Amino acid sequence: MRKVLIANRGEIALRLIRACRELGLPTVAVFSDADRAGLHVLAADEAFRLGPAPATESYLRGDLILDIARRTGADAIHPGYGFLSENAAFAESCEHAGIKFIGPPASAMRALGSKTRARQAADQAGMPRTPGSVHGLASLDEALTVAANIGYPVMLKAAAGGGGKGMRAITSPADLPSAFTSAQSEAERAFGSGEVYLEKLIERPRHIEIQILADEHGHCVYLGERECSVQRRHQKVIEEAPSAVVGPDLRQRMGEAAVCLALAAGYTNAGTIEFLVDPDQNFYFLEMNTRLQVEHPVTELVTGYDLVHLQIRIAQGAPLPFAQQDVHLRGHAIECRVYAEDPDNAFMPSPGRITRLLQPGGPGIREDCGIYEGWVVPMDYDPMLSKLIAFAPTRELAIARLLRALDEYVIGGIRTNLGLFRRILRDPDFQTARIDTGYLDRLLASGLSSRPEFSQSENGAEGSAVPIIATAAAAIFEATRPTPVTPTAPPANAWKSAARTEAVRDFNGKARS
Amino acid sequence: MKFDLEIDGQTRKVDISPSATSGQWQMQIDGEPVEADACLLRPGVLSLLVHGQSHRVVLDADLANASANGDSADPALHLGAHRIEWRAEDPRSFRRRRRHAGTDGPITLKASMPGRVVRILVAKGDTVAAHQSVLVLEAMKMQNELKSPKEGRVIDLRVAPGDTVSSGQPLAIVE
């Protein structure tokens, strides 16, 4: 392997470029018109334009990406997550072009990447799965029949899906028609395939997934589990490793089932098998993600392995450098997905300019981030800004460490969900790990705002005046700040010019007295 | 320097004069004197000491730059984990404050962010219930339903499926 093309953007592109640099591999970045100023362009050794901002004209254009790989002499492509990462046709095009796709072979992606095919594979491997269809639904009539057979509530899902897109929970037949159409159109737009299927909704499940790594010599290991039960709209919000409810026995049973499925499908490289775990600790196969996951850092922190390094080593044909008995979990890691969205306004995406950025640091804190002060978050892509991860000896200390880092973190100019994490991490149910995939929706429905109140008790008797003093100080610095002189300077704000005149008059007055 | 500060919807009268020591401000809030020491660390980041208590104040944006860039005109600052929306007004200016519209009369549904109209769920002339979905807007790969804020009749639809809309663009009018 001589050079790696990074077929992605944002924080994951940067994370992959860093890994390549650590391994002495030069990198080629690709970018859309919305990302010319992206950090991944700056960080890579070479960077080439793909096309206009929409992903279908840029990051999903496998043909253009392969052209750039050929032109630059890149002999490997890392797809990251999302975009082309689970596109078997693209992996196959890479194979034909003699370019190594850093991920599983196209055949294994076909067998496991589609959720419906993966359900068939799970049946063959004898792995428990949720009841429901194992093929895409041809029509609304078929959907109604399947739903009636398995019984409501049911879950409608995109076969090519991920991240909760094209996914709907349905409680009665009346809700199925509109959900069916909107899920199909959302899936079609997001994944280029409108195939949807139905499965039985498991009540109050925990989402627990197993990370596996398989080399090209028939070795496969599992690297413990991640719990991702804190979700909103089926989108993971907080992930942690290990899960508070998984003991050595359950871990081994889930891990061995995952390895069995991967080996049966001829899977190589990094992959994740997702399970739902019910309150009685029964686990049901949900789907397999045939790529690196957003939440891979929590596994890296508790196992000590760098998953991207290992992905590259495996793609280079090296055998796994360790065996299952060498994998030991140590400590606890928790990740927050920081999004440009407004928790006080129905979580509407909040693209725009990041006018201020104060980033956390210190012991045990990792921030996988693709933003900087002055960057304009485009409206064309997923609004994830960064991942804030804390690692500590225990879950309790990891929560405390994450709260400390959240207090250091300021992202100004756009709305973010940072306040939501403070609220979750202080919630007694989260602190005692009484969580399931409906936990966050219940917390949000409890009606309390995620905006913290400035508490007087914490800040002394004068505490209540502090917000006013702070605002007044901000106003006066703002009013007396020299305005940069530019030909296109906007018309001065009325109160500001009056304030400035007043301030000058005061200084003059002092000088005279 | 006297001005009205609007902080999270509440108005305070503030009178500030710089004292001899740099960074120290004599301040009166609603007529009550307070002392504070504010130090600008770098643009937008203030260290504020009030009776020995240390506070970090981060201004979201420079107001002039924000309007020049077309960014949110809604200034905010971060006091620790607390986000404060504020506006300052010189009482001598006669600029009227914007009032929030009530629910009487026609209400214009506006796009809360740039996006694309996926589907329109009502027709012109339809009656809608409060919180009934009017149309579906897709932005950043998520579909969001826009709901009518009140019960009424759709008297105008300004967009069609497939239209790209900008933030604040009128989409429909409910009377």
Task: Please provide a written account of the structure.
- The complex is a heterodimer of chains A (513) and B (175).
- Chain A is 36% helix and 22% strand.
- Chain A is an alpha+beta fold and 513 residues long.
- Chain A has four domains: 4-102, Rossmann fold, CATH 3.40.50; 131-200, ATP-grasp fold, A domain (Dna Ligase, domain 1, 2-Layer Sandwich), CATH 3.30.1490.20; 206-445, 2-Layer Sandwich (D-amino Acid Aminotransferase, Chain A, domain 1); 457-512, no CATH class.
- In chain A, the strands form six sheets. Chain A has an eight-stranded antiparallel beta sheet. Chain A has a five-stranded parallel beta sheet with strand order 3-2-1-4-5. In chain A, strands 7-6-8 form a three-stranded antiparallel beta sheet.
- The longest helix of chain A has 19 residues, at 494-512.
- Chain A is globular, with a radius of gyration of 25 Å.
- With 175 residues, chain B is mainly beta.
- Chain B has two domains: 2-89, 2-Layer Sandwich (Glycoprotein, Type 4 Pilin); 107-174, RNA polymerase II/Efflux pump adaptor protein, barrel-sandwich hybrid domain (OB fold (Dihydrolipoamide Acetyltransferase, E2P)).
- Chain B has one helix spanning 63-69, and strands at residues 2-7, 10-18, 24-29, 32-42, 45-50, 53-59, 76-79, 82-89, 107-110, 115-120, 127-128, 133-139, 142-147, 152-157, 164-165, 170-174.
- Chain B has an eight-stranded antiparallel barrel. In chain B, strands 9-16-14-11 form a four-stranded antiparallel beta sheet, with no helix packed on it.
- Residues 66-72 and 93-102 of chain B have low confidence and may be disordered.
- Classes of the chains: A alpha+beta (513), B mainly beta (175).
- Chains A and B meet through helix 8, strand 16, strand 17, helix 13 and helix 16 of A and strand 1, strand 2, strand 3, strand 4 and strand 5 of B.
Question: What is the CATH C-level name of the largest domain in chain B?
Answer: Alpha Beta
Number of strands of chain B: 16
Number of domains as seen in the coordinates of chain B: 2
Judged by helices, strands and strand pairing, the structural class of chain B is: mainly beta
CATH fold name of the largest domain in chain B? Glycoprotein, Type 4 Pilin
Question: What portion of the residues of chain B fall into strands of 2 or more residues?
Answer: over 45%
Indicate the percent of residues in helices of chain A: 25-40%
Please provide the ordered H/E string of secondary-structure elements of chain B. EEEEEEHEEEEEEEEEE
Shape of chain A: globular
Helix fraction bin of chain B: under 10%
Which stretches of chain A are poorly predicted, pLDDT < 50 over at least 5 residues?
485-491, 507-513
Strand content of chain A: 15-25%
Oligomeric description of these chains: heterodimer
Distance between the termini of chain A: 77 Å
**Chains forming the largest contact:** A-B, 70 and 72 residues
